[in-house]
Write a structure and sequence with these properties.
The complex is a heterodimer of chains A (306) and B (263). By secondary structure, chain A is mostly helical. Chain A is built from 12 helices and no strands. Chain A is globular. Chain B has 263 residues and is of the alpha/beta class. Classes of the chains: A mainly alpha (306), B alpha/beta (263).
Amino acid sequence: MVDAIGGQTLDGGAGLIVEPIQPLCLIASASSAVVSAATLSMACALLGLVVVARRWAFVGEGIAHAGFGGAGTAWMLVVFFPSLAQVSWLVYITVVVFCLSMAVAVGWLERSGRVNSDAAIGIFLVASLAWGFVAREVYRHFNPSYPPDWETYLFGQLRGISAGYALVTVMISIAVVLVVVALSKEILAYCFDPELAEVSGIPAAFIHYLLMILIALVIILGVRIAGGVLVTAMLVLPAVTARMLAQRLRSVVIAAMVCGVLGAMAGLAVNHRWSFLPAGPSIVLMLFAQFLLAYGIGRLRWIGGE
Amino acid sequence: MAENDPIIDIAELDFAYGRQAVLKGIDLPVRAGTALGIIGPNGGGKSTLLRLLLGLLSPTRGRIRIAGLSPRQARRRGDLMGYLPQNPRISRDLPLTARQVVHLGLAGKTGLLHRVEAADRAFADALMRRTGAEEFADQPVAELSGGQLQRVLICRALAAQPKILLLDEPTTGIDAAGQVRFVEFLNDLKQLLNLTLVLVSHDLRTVSAIADRIACLNLTLHYHDIPGHVPAEVIHRTFACDLEAMQPWLTQSAGRPSTEAPG
């Protein structure tokens, strides 16, 4: 069993004849996983500060779970149009469409204030999960097995991440960070108080939907790493931990990004050392350990200050 | 816009939430540099009128012009109107200092992808010194008291040097001594920056100490334009209650000199 962080298991099939080129592929794949996890966790941590300030953790959950409904739609399409099984990018398209539609719909509900957006997210979230599970069973009914890699959309699968996918992840993550930095004063004003931002001349609706879409983008990418069930941890945990460690905006931003990257790297290291432990949940548990540590430090400081 | 045109001009304004009429036939010009107080019972449409002025709501009928612009255009300029809401729903999870919050008031005026100008920043800092907010400028905004936060939010609203300041129930939750200080503070700012004030409150004392014209609003506009005191029958029509209930306020407010409007 050769399993680096992102390596494919090679012990299947008859005999192991590893060609000289394969270790290089493994290294490339492992570094793809490391680089994409590191850059994505930076973007997630930055947007996490927005998510925490606006109390959008559940919005993130809704968008993330829409991904499974999106994958389910692709499986249904394959059942009814078997030729689509050859289209490898079909499932990416449906996942992206579902997550972005969820983001825009939730964004609209949040802004209109007419509907209880919390309840609406809850409804869409379970409907999307249910649709995904039904689609999986329908697929199984007409095919010899479950859809390929169906667990990925729930629990993530960092293994075998391609260099192309890693490149896209890195580019989108960097773009997200650049957009947030470029519009930092508007985003801060919006997060501080959306109504005050709007009346002081900021295009609040634009910032609102932009943030929803940026969050959806990192969630879509994060689903591959941590899975739809766990991806919001990559947004929320570093931001909350950083808030406990630092007081000033600049230090909180830096602390959140450092926490995000450290957590991701620690999770990958765990997965590397004990390959039977999945990468996504390991990352989340490392982020949670950081949170507990920061909480402990905070309590000690408080007791010491008393 | 001609020199003598009102800076805020409301004409034949109706507004309804669905079938529920909230404002009917409002005509209300406000001249630059004056302070208009709007009083009326809860649900009488005071806050709705402010939201219409800010372009957050659209009139069912009629017209609002702010310095010759529609409320939305005026709002988007970022340097025409400042606003202090009744219950600001600020996020205390953002690690911002009081000074950073005040500087955020410059974002709309500055525009997307532009850096805030040093002169604007300097004005905002000077405003904080003048209003005493400098003392807690570097404290996290989440740790400020109610009065301190209000001062910060007023500095934020005025950071972009707007010509108009809209205030919604600014003295709610402030004790009597605090209210007196607030009135002095606001009158000082009005003179200093030659502001036009529109102040909404159900507290006649505060309104009469700041405003030089008072409008009584309860679905329709009952009265406006005469400075000094408010006649008893107008109060009765506006609040739909006996004059005795309002008497303590009226006797106190009637004797107070109204603020002089500069220029």
